[in-house]
Design brief:
Strand content: 15-25%
Oligomer: single chain
Bound molecules: adenosine-5'-triphosphate
CATH class: Alpha Beta
Helix content: 25-40%
CATH superfamily: P-loop containing nucleotide triphosphate hydrolases
CATH architecture: 3-Layer(aba) Sandwich
CATH topology: Rossmann fold
Order of helices and strands: EEEHEEHEHHHEHEHEEHHH
Strand order of the largest sheet: 6-7-8-3-9-10
Shape: globular
Distance between the termini: 50 Å
Mean pLDDT: 90
Largest sheet: 6 strands, mixed
Structural class: alpha/beta
């Protein structure tokens, strides 16, 4: 099957508040796919549905051919071993060394001998350029370095699918570029598939093969980064060119200013 993840006609809401409606997405193996959209558009929710932390109200969502909403707890646990996840802000365990943070999933999910775990951790840390920081605690490294340690931890089990939730948030421009290049390099070196949730247009377009734009729970545009740059779709244009007003209004919906200051009229 060419797609590691396939989403078909998926509907999801929190309680009776709809968040995603009629979603259809493909995530082909070996690719880096960016999921972009404004705050609250449902990007993180998609990652949580793929990881099986949430269940859709209807529709299908397959990972490696298995329909995630149908899986029982033990099958879900096995499937999650194939997934690496870099959470928003990539929090590390602060009381553990860099080494132990990366070793954590290997201890949790495997019975490998300690010497092999040591070598694997050092290889992963080497891949992110931090082998010599193995003995440091998170408080002793910079924010950009911490993000790279979180990256090494996310790929510790050589996942077939790696999900990144806002991996560039809060980083300086240099660390952002380093992180973006690493995401691409690690994806290609591991032969995995990466899903990148971000609202950073430059960094995401720089490494993604394909981009989905989400707005109010629906895919409003999709294509290669070049196609998205050339798109005349008003929503994509607003997003790509960071325009303050457009289909996504600057003003929170409600009464017009004229009404509020007693001049009447409609917004
Ligand atoms: N546990 C929850 N219970 C109820 N509503 C929630 C819950 N988690 C998220 N939401 C709502 O669902 C919507 C989509 O949230 P989601 O986190 O998927 O958006 P997002 O696109 O990832 O946004 P951001 O870029 O700000 O992280 C938001 O309006 C949010 O308030």
């Amino acid at each position: 099957m060419p797609n590691i993840v396939e989403i078909r006609d998926l509907h999801f809401g929190y309680g009776d508040r709809p968040i995603l409606s009629g979603l259809r997405m493909d995530f082909p193996r070996g690719k880096v796919i960016a999921v972009m959209g404004g705050s609250g558009s449902g990007k993180t929710t998609i990652l949580r549905l793929i990881g099986g932390q949430l269940r859709p109200q209807s529709g299908s969502l397959t990972v490696d051919g298995q329909n995630v909403p149908d899986l029982n707890t033990s099958d879900l646990y096995l499937l999650r071993r194939k997934m690496g996840m870099l959470f928003q802000n990539g929090a590390l365990f602060t009381d553990m060394t860099v080494f132990d943070n990366v070793a954590f999933p290997l201890h949790e999910h495997t019975n490998l001998p300690e010497e092999l775990i040591r070598d694997l951790v050092l290889l992963k840390l080497n891949a992110v350029g931090l082998r010599n920081a193995a003995r440091l605690k998170p408080a002793e490294i910079s924010g950009g370095m911490a993000r790279r340690v979180a990256l090494a931890r996310a790929i510790a089990l050589d996942p077939a699918l790696i999900m990144y939730d806002e991996p560039f948030a809060g980083l300086d421009p240099i660390s952002m570029g380093v992180t973006a290049n690493l995401i691409r390099k690690l994806n290609d070196a591991l032969g995995s598939t990466s899903i990148l949730v971000s609202h950073d247009v430059n960094e995401s377009f720089g490494i993604a093969d394909y981009v989905y734009f989400l707005s109010e729970g629906k895919i409003v545009a999709q294509g290669t980064p070049d196609e998205m740059r050339a798109s005349q779709d008003p929503y994509v244009k607003q997003f790509v060119h960071a325009e303050a007003d457009g289909p996504v209004p600057f003003h929170y919906p409600g009464r017009s200013l004229a009404e509020d200051v007693g001049l009447g009229g409609q917004q």
